[in-house]
Amino acid sequence: RHLSLLVAEEEEYINSSSWRDQKRHFFVLTEAGKPVYSRHGSEDKLSSVMGVMLALVSCVHDRNDKIRSITAGDHKFVFLIKIPLILVAVCSTPESITQITVYLKYIYNKIVSIVTLKQLDRIYAKQKNFDLRRLLTGTDKFLDHLCTSMDTGPEYLLGAFQCLPLAGNIRDLVSQALQLSKTNDLAFALLLTSGKTVSYCRLKEHNLHSSDLQILINLITASSSFHAGESWLPICLPHFNPQGFLHAHISYLDDDFQTCLLLLSADVNSFFTLSEAKKRVMVKLNKHDCLPILKLASEKGMYNVGKIGLPDLRHFIYKSKHQSQFTAPEFSSPYHDVHQQERLFGLYQHLHGKIHNPAIPLKLLFEVSDEETMLAWVASGFELYVAFSPLVTKGQAISSVDRLLRWIKQREDELFMIRPLVF
Amino acid sequence: LASLVVYNTSYGTKEGEEEKKLLFYHPKTETRDKKVNNVGLFEALVQFTRSFAPNSECETLRTKFHQHVFLHAEENFWLVMKVANRTSKAQHNEFIAYEDEMVDTVYHEVLKNLYETFRFLHGTFTAIVGNHGVEFLREELDHCFGQLMKTNLSKCDIMSVYNGVSYLNLDKASYIGFQSFIFTLQDKFKDVESSLLMFNDAVILSGLDETDTKVIVKYLKSKLKLCLAYPNRLHISISGISTYMLTYGHMVTSLFTSKHTKQTRRAFINFDAPNSMQQVEVILYQYQSITACLFLNKPSIPLVDLAKQLDAFMGPQLKTLTASIVDQQKNNYDITEPNLKHVYHNRCSLSVDSTCHVTSHSGEVSCVIPTDVMQVVCDINRTFSRSKCEEHEVINKVHNDHWVASKRTNGRELHVVVNHKNANLSAVTEEIKKVSCHFNGINFAE
């Protein structure tokens, strides 16, 4: 009797439009059908929905095939099968199926970063119906934060990160300071201000992949638990090594928790060595009075598009392919409210999806609609996405793009990290 | 085409009776269990998508190797078509199989057309079941879909989406001539409810609504293409079509027949207006290059006698009228511009016009631009049909040499394909103008 009451409650919940009508659902379950995570609503109440998902996956699997996606009107249902996990997205947003698959991969990587692939495989080889939530206790907020930032974050769409705009010589000083943290097993040293990358230093033979960097940024921005003193935490960076943990020494360098230093080492016993290394970085930064400058730069924020002096230009995103970095101005008129910003981001997603269509990639896309004229252009070194006012002529758009590219080139040093150092 | 299934969700709801849901299953060789299982999967999918999107219907299921297209044809009646993914690289690259996202609409329209053609020839599923029972519907589907399924899917593109008809270019006087001919005809022969006139494969005028016109023209073209290609040999029975010679022209007798009822020359029209589906009888009359499709409501005399009377009236008139058809030149811009091609569609009149396709002597239509460029055209059409604004313009650079410029305005769509080495946006804009100036009111942005 108690059970039937629960089932009824669950049904009512799923049928409530407030849950159903969410624009982006993400679900994670195990191949035994155990719920792991749901973005909206508690996964406990969703066991029947997840049961259906598992049934669909295994039904198609029985036919020696693999389910990828379902479409119904504006809704897209996308499946990513990474045994022992199954990830499902249900979106009624303008992304393409390929883009949604990329989002699911971010979620998968986030989970791997907490438990490592090695542990995941070992557990499920032994015990098929293990409840993974036991290992993920307390990490829901990181997954929630990741899902929310993917809603409007170009970094996930582009696979690139955005630097804090900063004078080139200051960034160089920070890089040199980070280099001083070198110890035997140090893999990466990273400095963030207000969640934006200032600089990082890495081992010569290992690049810091932008998706790994995103995991670190997500970790810092999702939680205030690192505010107190120095923290020590195991973390797996799936692109660096999905099988094992790195150990992160995390500390804030200023009193208002703006600037954060992350030191990642392969040695589990190196906390005190890294604590010493942090002091060396601090000395160098203080010597040149860098922290107040960083604070000022973060308060100043991004630049306004009006600064460029192109009347028809409303907003843009420029990605430098070599550096996996992008730059974009802050939102200005007419994109001042969240609704408009989401709409604009939807247009960027649309352009990005078309231009990177895996079957037929395009070189250039120019689209005129009622509210704006959009341009996307992929060249050898960069990708550019621009929103113009709807009345711009093609001639004006072309000359604006030329001037915009020149403007970016002139400020390359300030907008991008172009001289990263290695240990 | 890997398989085609028609089922009704309300049949065989009891455990163990699931087989009753099946109305049609291709390939027939599939085991009973597999058939039942597949329908179970389809029903689960439909339920699953409804739980998130209660107002939309499940449209496609994409897997690593296949794509399923769903059509909710009538209440409880579903058609599901399964197609193998076009690419064989699917095993090596996870993403490449998504290619077919671009041709979604194409497959969907092919399936819809299949259903509409069936409906035109036999009536709705619901009506058939109501009048003759489920078993009868199964037999009709077997008979009819077997014939219709021969569509070559790899050749389907934007033209299957538009499913439009090409109209004959006529000067005003000749057009009015034809119009008054039809008026007189329908006045003189009260049994003739409405009619459709074609010259070769181009429509002169149609008294039917859009969907009916679309379906009939496509059906006639597929059945009569051989006759049309050899207009002088019309009296010979070709590919199962038999004709009945009259004094001037002849009557095509073997179309629109049902194997079971032995009722000849009937069809169902008027689906768009609610509750006004009509069963009509059809006389298909040909005189030289003219085909007249006459729809009769409960004729008072036998069709053969009526046909004789019609022939005596129509023959001499058509003779004069045909002579006035002189110009068939469709492409009114300078065809010495080989780097420019276009596809045009008018949603209201159904008119289509394409220089991206050529028709061979045997009636085969083939596409002359690269497949990927054509896929981009299909994809833009999909963007347009999902876009909320009536005015929409898109210009794509596909690879180094090809550009696709598309404009939608007031229900009309024009896609211009420009093949131009090392062009830039301004140069392409100039090229597009050479085409768009021939389409009144379609102006690309400056």
TrEMBL record, chain A:
The FUZ/MON1/HPS1 second Longin domain, residue ranges: 185-282
Described purpose of this protein according to its UniProt entry: Plays an important role in membrane trafficking through the secretory apparatus.
Single Gene Ontology BP annotation: protein targeting to vacuole
Ranges of residues in domain FUZ/MON1/HPS1 third Longin: 312-412
Entry protein name: Vacuolar fusion protein MON1 homolog
Limits of the FUZ/MON1/HPS1 first Longin domain: 24-146
Family, as annotated: Belongs to the MON1/SAND family.
InterPro entries tied to this protein: FUZ/MON1/HPS1_longin_1 (IPR043972), FUZ/MON1/HPS1_longin_2 (IPR043971), FUZ/MON1/HPS1_longin_3 (IPR043970), Mon1 (IPR004353)
One GO term describing the cellular component: Mon1-Ccz1 complex
Organism this protein belongs to: Ciona intestinalis (Transparent sea squirt)
From TrEMBL, chain B:
InterPro entries: Ccz1 (IPR013176), CCZ1/INTU/HSP4_longin_1 (IPR043987), CCZ1/INTU/HSP4_longin_3 (IPR043989), CCZ1/INTU_longin_2 (IPR043988)
Residue ranges occupied by any CCZ1/INTU second Longin domain in the UniProt entry: 192-314
A Pfam family matched in the record: Intu_longin_2
Domain CCZ1/INTU/HSP4 first Longin intervals: 3-123
Example of a GO biological process term: vesicle-mediated transport
Superkingdom of this protein's organism: Eukaryota
Domain (CCZ1/INTU/HPS4 third Longin): residue spans on this chain: 337-434
Gene Ontology cellular component annotations, sorted alphabetically: Mon1-Ccz1 complex
Similarity field: Belongs to the CCZ1 family.
Protein name: CCZ1/INTU/HSP4 first Longin domain-containing protein
Organism, scientific name: Ciona intestinalis
Upper taxonomic lineage: Eukaryota, Metazoa, Chordata, Tunicata, Ascidiacea
